[in-house]
Amino acid sequence: MAVDHYTAAALTDVGRKRSSNEDAFGYSVEHGVYVVCDGMGGAAAGEIASSLAVSEVLRLLTGQAADGSEAATVPSKAEHAVCAANEAVFSRAQGDDKLSGMGTTLVVLVTEQSRVWVLNVGDSRCYRLRNNSMEQLTLDHSLVEELVRLGRMTPDEALNSPLRNVITRALGTQSNTTPDVYEVEAEPGDLFLVCSDGLPRELPDPQIESILRMELPLEEICNNLVNAAKKAGGNDNITCLIVRAES
To answer: Residue 36 is inside which H or E element, if any?
Structure first.
């Protein structure tokens, strides 16, 4: 059975320890574009970086001929939008000393019928729940995750490492960046969770999976994920965006 359309819901929360929310999200079901960003930087810089990146990606992917070519493929348009967002954040930081060094993580989910592309920079994530089984579709661009992949650190050590906040790739901190791009086939009933690291830092994957498996409206699932992360500590901002493939 083919995917006919998608539905979505999202929620962001400042958490229990932070005074401001540097996460941002935006989406257009009509255009099949879903974005989550987690900003970083002093003062309000993180909030500016994440909001600017979300706005730029949505602007480019919900308009006509995003990269100037009607014949361009969906992933090339999406990659162009991410690179343009990087340039927008970098340029804004260069023009204001108070924003120097600001940046953001980014995950973009783009849908076209049964085809789904995921682009990411940084350690925000995308998961897919299919047949009650969850898998992580993205790889974190973080120092501890790279050490885990190299076999130099265990996953448990990574969770408790003082280096876990060090990300190895971000949007807007350099003049150029390259997103990882993944393509998957969606099936009716698939749930895609796009989230900032404030969720998986508090909740282990099995707990996230158990909440996603609940037969509830997407808004309630988002609420349950955020509340569980806050109950577990809520040390960071928490953003969840859920997209469901429908027949």
So the answer is: strand 33-40
Domain 5-246 is found in CATH 3.60.40.10? yes
Q: How far is CA 110 from the centre of its chain?
A: 12
Give the tens place of pLDDT for each residue, 171-200. 999 999 999 999 999 999 999 999 999 999
How far from the centroid of its chain's Cα atoms is residue 134's Cα? 16
pTM value > 0.90: yes
| Length of the chain counted residue by residue | 247
DSSP one-letter string for 137-205:
-S---BHHHHHHHTTSS-HHHHHH-TTTT-BS--BSSSS----EEEEEE--TT-EEEEE-TTTTTTS-H
Beta bridge partner(s), residue 104: 39, 171
- φ and ψ at 167, to 5 degrees? -100, 145
CA 167 to mean position of chain CA atoms: 14
- Check whether 150 has a pLDDT greater than 50: yes
Q: In which band, very low, low, confident or very high, does the pLDDT at 69 lie, cut at 50, 70 and 90?
A: low
4: helix, strand or coil: coil
Q: What is the pLDDT of residues 71-112, one digit of tens each?
A: 689 999 999 999 999 999 999 999 999 999 999 999 999 999
With beta carbons less than 8 A apart as the criterion, state whether 109 and 118 touch: yes
Report which of 87, 82, 70 is spatially closest to residue 106, judged by C-alpha positions: 82
Reported as type and span, the H/E element at residue 134 is strand 133-136
Joined tokens for residue 162: 């003082």
C-beta atoms surrounding 162 within 10 Å = 7
